[in-house]
Amino acid sequence: MLANEYCPHKISTGLLKGAMPEKVCDVHGPDDHKEIAVRICTDPRHSGTLYLANEAGLLETGGCPQEFIEERIFKAYEAPKVRCPLQDHQVTKKPLINNPNNGHGQDTEGASHQP
Prior knowledge:
By secondary structure, the protein is mainly beta. The protein folds into 2 domains: 1-30, no CATH class; 34-93, no CATH class. It is built from no helices and 5 strands. It has strands at 35-41, 51-52, 60-62, 69-75, 91-93. The strands form 2 sheets. A 3-stranded antiparallel sheet has the order 2-1-4, with no helix packed on it.
């Protein structure tokens, strides 16, 4: 495949007659060279591999601890794409209703509540 003007890694090489590629790269474009801010997890257990930080939203809890989250600038095509895989850094959904009886009308000892 022929590199277009936005391809980051262009190579020049000799080709056999008839082996010249005809298609032009359609993967890289003008937005690839923009710089973007990405929040990454810097937990030392990653051994230097960069992962996107898991951050809890409004109805979520958990995620990467703040002390391991760092914002860095990357070219769009160089930014990490994989989220932090550490089990203790995962995000979970918060329960929508905080009901100690699990909505069953009984307390933890099985007695029914009287209205």
